[in-house]
Amino acid sequence: MKISNDRVVYTMSRDNQPVATVKSGSDVIFDTCDCFSDQITAADTVFQALDWQRINPATGPVYIEEAQPGDALRVHIKRIRFTRDNAVMVTAPNLGVIGDELQAPEVSIIPIDNGKALLPGGVEVALRPMIGVIGVAPAGEAISCGTPDSHGGNMDCKEITEGSTLWLPVNVPGALFALGDLHAAMGDGEVSVCGLEIPGEVTVELTVVKNRKLPLPMLENSDTLYTLASALTLDEAASMATRNMAHFIADNTDLPLSQAISILSITGDLQVCQVVDPLKTCRFALPKTVAAQLNLSISGGEK
């Protein structure tokens, strides 16, 4: 099933009407706009003319038949493909970490060719496709697609990429899953408030997992487990991501919390996802080589 990019939402909400219904285990293709709703078509696009009510669209939402509150939703990202041969970026006064030092907005069109992006100054970087906005409806009030929280949303985690698996909470019947805001590449922090913003097509497998209690959201790839957390300050997000990983270990092994904390202090890495959204996002990384020694996995089977 494919969902076209004219079916988008700008908030994640239990009140959003699903654009499609699928069974658990289904593959779904999401056609996405860039984070500016494809409003920027050239470097001379007038920044002040952008409609800021159309930022960070997420394609969807999709209703998964078996999903009920308390379940986990396993989102395996099978493929990310771009549908344009350039990306867009902006800088502007009061945007990003050091926008206070800028005098005027600037729009950039970044060429993409042969797996690389050509940045200012002739700098070439390899592409690393990732998903900026991905999540489900929250249990309570609607949340802007530009804001991350425990439901997912605009986490801007560069590890949410092809081949990775994101685990999200199911807060409402059907989960109401949506995604958008692809980046051809992005550094940790997203300090300008932009990655390489680009439209594309994402294929995911959506699977409902019953009776699995986890400190969600969580993420995994071939070699690492992550807890993800968003909060008003970076300190709070860092503490929450760390706390969630420590309790994940303690709750799913025979180790006391004190020993789980010791293991994280030696083997784990506390990392920043983004610092420019209304809530900041951190991740805590635990190598799977360590998790395997603890007989620990997100999917279960421990103890």
Index terms:
mainly beta, globular, single chain, Jelly Rolls, 3 helices, Endonuclease I-creI, six-stranded mixed beta sheet, 303 residues, 2 domains, nine-stranded mixed beta sheet
Main beta sheet: 9 strands, mixed
Corresponding CATH superfamily of the largest domain? Acetamidase/Formamidase-like domains
The total domain count is 2
Spatial separation of the terminal alpha carbons = 38 Å
Descriptive report:
This protein has helices spanning 234-252, 257-267, 288-293, and strands spanning 2-3, 8-9, 11-12, 20-22, 26-32, 58-64, 72-82, 86-91, 106-113, 116-119, 123-126, 130-135, 143-144, 152-153, 165-169, 177-183, 200-209, 218-220, 224-231, 269-274, 280-287. With 303 residues, the chain is mainly β. The protein has two domains: 2-209, Jelly Rolls, CATH 2.60.120; 218-293, Endonuclease I-creI (Roll). It has a nine-stranded mixed β-sheet. Strands 2, 4, 6, 12, 14 and 16 form a six-stranded mixed β-sheet that branches. It starts with a strand and ends in a 10-residue tail after the last helix. The model has no long low-confidence stretch (mean pLDDT 97).
Present the secondary structure layout.
Blueprint: E1 2-3, E2 8-9, E3 11-12, E4 20-22, E5 26-32, E6 58-64, E7 72-82, E8 86-91, E9 106-113, E10 116-119, E11 123-126, E12 130-135, E13 143-144, E14 152-153, E15 165-169, E16 177-183, E17 200-209, E18 218-220, E19 224-231, H1 234-252, H2 257-267, E20 269-274, E21 280-287, H3 288-293
Parallel strand pairs: 1-5, 4-6
Antiparallel strand pairs: 2-6, 3-13, 5-17, 6-16, 7-15, 7-17, 8-9, 9-10, 10-11, 12-14, 12-16, 15-18, 18-19, 19-21, 20-21
Helix pairs in contact: 1-2
